[in-house]
Structure formats: structure tokens, C-alpha cells
Design a protein that fits this description.
The chain is 40% helix and 16% strand. The chain has 215 residues and is of the alpha/beta class. Helix 3 packs across helix 8. It has nine helices and eight strands. A six-stranded parallel sheet has the order 5-4-3-6-7-8, sandwiched between helices. A two-stranded parallel ribbon has the order 1-2. The model has no long low-confidence stretch (mean pLDDT 96). The radius of gyration is 18 Å and the shape is globular. Strand 1, helix 2 and strand 2 form a beta-alpha-beta unit.
Length: 215
């Protein structure tokens, strides 16, 4: 609150941040929103290709606000009903070893791959193989939240449908039921239903992916 008095302007990334700051007492006239984005014209689209397996892709640091365990639990429920699904996870972070320990004992451990940290060029090759982008962002216990997740914006630009959460700037990135699906934070059961739904409807994936890039 001292900052609200001291600062001339408070710069935010999305409407959710404006609402959050006004609730805390920031004068609305001091808040300025600057939209950020990704260079869509520099990102190649790779047509979705049907293959023996169906690949979900998650890219991001293994930190509480990304809730990687929620993504994995949703995947497990999906894999219970569709044996052809696979999950690729890119990134590192403080929760990685804990998550890997869980997966080592998972009934679907052979369907989940940790690819580590990747360069932008390497990520491009991973997108070629993927069908749907997944990210279960939540408000962490310490209050940490997403702003405007660049990984989701990039996934949209690659022409992939998104399954994520109703969280922060994601609400501006994904049009629910048109460019992907959004669920409530920590509702991995519903997330798994949408994962299963898309894994069984390749045509819908292609349609949503094209809409995702356009948006």
C-alpha cells in the first residue's frame, strides 16, 4: 500500500491484475495495462498429424503455481481410458525431483517423459510431435500467480488447442470451448475429461488449433 502512494504508475499485464490491485486499494487512475505477446509471424505452424500415439505437451518450470502434479494426475485419469495418450514435460525447477519420484511409482510411468530444459529451437521440434498443450496453473500458497503465460501464447501460435485453468491472464489467452478448454484451479478430474475428449477427436483438435493461433 505504501507503493501505491509512492509510485506514479503501476504497470500490469491483464484485466485480472487490474481487479486484484484495485481490491488492494490501488487508485484506478494509476494502473496502466500494457499488453504483451509473442511474434506470431515468426512462429511456424506444424499441422497436427495423426500418429500411433496422442501427445499432450506441458512446458514450464516445476514450481507451485504451475502445479505439475495436477497435470500428471489429470493425465493418469485420461490414460486409464485411452491407452494411446502420452505426456511430454519440458522444463526444470525445484519440484522436478518430487514429481519424478511420483511418476516412478505411477501406473502410467512409461507414458510420461521428462525432456528437461530445452532451447527455443528444440521446443519447436517438440511441438511438431504434440497434439494438445496442457498447463494447470494455480494460485500458490504464498500468493504467487501467473501474469500472462508466454508458454501458452506460444502454444497457441503453434496452432495447438489448450487445456488449462481459469487463472489470471490465461482467461484472455484461451476462449473456452473454442480454442481449448478451461477448468477451475485444482480440478484435475474435469481436466482429465477434456484431455480424454480431445484425444478421441482429432478433427476437433485441428479446428481448435487453427482458432487458437488466430486468436
Amino acid at each position: 500500500k505504501e507503493l501505491f502512494v509512492f509510485a506514479k504508475y503501476i504497470i500490469v499485464l491483464n484485466d485480472w491484475m487490474i481487479e486484484s490491485l484495485t481490491v488492494l486499494g490501488c487508485p484506478i487512475e494509476k494502473i496502466k495495462k500494457i499488453n504483451i505477446g509473442v511474434p506470431v509471424e515468426e512462429i511456424n505452424t506444424f499441422p497436427l498429424k495423426s500418429s500411433e500415439n496422442f501427445y499432450f505437451l506441458a512446458i514450464g518450470r516445476f514450481v507451485p503455481k504451475k502445479a505439475p502434479m495436477m497435470t500428471i494426475k489429470a493425465f493418469e485419469l485420461c490414460a486409464d481410458k485411452n491407452d494411446k495418450v502420452r505426456l511430454l514435460m519440458v522444463g526444470d525447477g525445484p519440484l522436478l525431483k518430487k514429481v519424478q519420484g511420483y511418476v516412478n511409482n505411477s501406473r502410467h510411468k512409461n507414458k510420461i517423459k521428462f525432456l528437461g530444459k530445452k532451447s527455443q529451437k528444440e521446443i519447436e521440434h517438440v511441438f511438431k510431435k504434440s497434439h494438445v498443450f496442457v498447463q494447470h496453473s494455480v494460485k500458490a500458497d504464498d500468493g504467487d500467480c501467473e501474469g500472462w503465460p508466454v508458454s501458452i501464447a506460444e502454444a497457441c501460435s503453434y496452432g495447438r488447442p489448450i487445456i488449462s485453468t481459469k487463472h489470471a491472464g490465461i482467461l484472455e489467452q484461451v476462449i473456452n470451448s473454442k480454442t481449448g478448454f478451461l477448468v477451475e484451479e485444482k480440478d484435475f478430474e474435469t481436466m482429465s475429461k477434456y484431455m480424454l475428449y480431445l484425444s478421441n477427436d482429432f478433427k476437433l483438435c485441428k479446428t481448435m488449433g487453427m482458432s487458437s493461433r488466430k486468436h
